[in-house]
Amino acid sequence: MDEPSVRLSTGNIIYPKTNLISDDYEISNTVLGLGINGKVLQCHNKDNGQVYALKVLHDSLKARREVALHWRVSGFRHIVSIIDVYKNSYNGNVCFLVVMECMRGGELFQRIQNQQTGAFTEREAAKIMQEICSAVKYLHDRNIAHRDLKPENLLYTLPDQNGVLKLTDFGFAKEVNVHATLETPCYTPYYVAPEVLGPEKYDKSCDIWSLGVIMYINHGQAISPGMKKRIRTGQFDFPDPEWSGVSKDARDLIRGMLCVNPAKRLDIDQVMCNQWIAKYGEVPETPLYTGKMLKEGEETWPEVQEEMMRSLATMRVDYDQVHIKSLNNSSNALLDKRRKKNLMNVLKK
Ligand SMILES: Nc1ncnc2c1ncn2[C@@H]1O[C@H](COP(=O)(O)OP(=O)(O)OP(=O)(O)O)[C@@H](O)[C@H]1O
């Protein structure tokens, strides 16, 4: 074990292993997935022969944050588990090698598209949403916003009915409690504008928007050409025939999650209390158009993914700017001092 090299502001410390990963794992050429940060490869544990997934990250503040936050939440049922973290150098370049459980069941929508037995129903959609929402609640309760919640980051452990849906990719996750002191009533001058919620709420509201889009797609809304525009403009409607049989509860929930104003958007506790989520087992078994829509929209699916990625990136920037603006607007000496201290903490992260 090394000196702690990954530290969270809350005091969590991660001790990556520093021996060579190849001492313990056989790394194969099988690529499980491609992302912006590189490949996710398959690997085998040399002791027990088990298959795992390996993500390689070049050392940076961002990479450290990703590893530390993912590690902290990795025990939860609906979050991909980290098994081991190594810190190895290759030609002088320090890398973090993150060994995760291997998600053999593939991505959420791929699975719905491939579903052979009967149509995908509203009750199944509700169960899936409950699982994803429980992962988000777990994060938000720990003051972590994921900020990159999209269908490609929702994977199943196994391809069969025993597969468990889990959230992964903490590349944009952010610990938001460092700003908490700014939000207490004594410092309300920071947040005089009613629409300014506090940065941590903005960051979390970005995840709720994602949940809304995923739920909307989950219900079989035709992907193209309208979906891209809807994502861009926030104008989600519920046209026939896809929505004619869908319950009002589902539609109301989607409206609450996709509310354009983040201050009015539902928070995760309100979502979890919603009867459609809390009592997902009682949701009507109305057949949905999802499988058909995903098959027909296969060619345009990459465009929808890209649009969602772009919107999330815009939201992350917007919310950071709201934070900076709200800080700049205040002119109290005591607040100035606190502001500097808090910004230092942010920069340290
Ligand atoms: N534990 C895993 N088991 C199997 N496949 C995985 C696993 N983790 C990731 N993948 C695959 O690799 C892809 C990329 O992984 P990940 O999203 O973590 O990387 P990234 O570089 O951060 O990607 P992004 O471009 O989405 O930011 C995933 O979409 C998925 O298909």
From TrEMBL:
Enzyme class (EC, first level): transferase
Domain (Protein kinase) ranges: 26-277
Residue ranges of the TM segments: none
Positions with a binding annotation for ATP: K55
Catalytic activity: L-threonyl-[protein] + ATP = O-phospho-L-threonyl-[protein] + ADP + H(+); L-seryl-[protein] + ATP = O-phospho-L-seryl-[protein] + ADP + H(+)
Pfam family, one: Pkinase
GO biological process assignments: regulation of cell size
Keywords carried by this UniProt record: ATP-binding, Kinase, Nucleotide-binding, Phosphoprotein, Serine/threonine-protein kinase, Transferase
Keyword Transferase in annotation: yes
Domain of life: Eukaryota
EC assignment: 2.7.11.1
CDD domains noted in UniProt: STKc_MAPKAPK
Molecular function via GO: ATP binding; protein serine/threonine kinase activity
Family statement drawn from the similarity comment of this UniProt entry: Belongs to the protein kinase superfamily. CAMK Ser/Thr protein kinase family.
Protein name (record): non-specific serine/threonine protein kinase
Lineage start: Eukaryota, Metazoa, Ecdysozoa, Arthropoda, Hexapoda
